[in-house]
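tool_call: predict_structure(chain=1)
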Amino acid sequence: MSLSLFMACGWGIIANVMGMLPARDNHWRRARLLIGTGCPIVVYVGWQHGPWIALIVFAAMASVLRWPLRYLLRRVTARLRG
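tool_result:
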């Protein structure tokens, strides 16, 4: 297994462990950390394995971070609508 896929799998394990731990801020600080580390991993996977594998990794990461992505989508659509 390549380093990029190993990092993506490690990200998934760490994200699940972080989600199981209690948090006072509803996990938003951890979500920002996971987004900040997940984006470069997806780019690295895309660089090593191509866009289709990167899309699969992105979908797996998005399934873990579904609530922050929903709120981000709501914010973007609200700003575009005015």
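agent: The two ends are 46 Å apart (CA to CA). Proceeding to next step.
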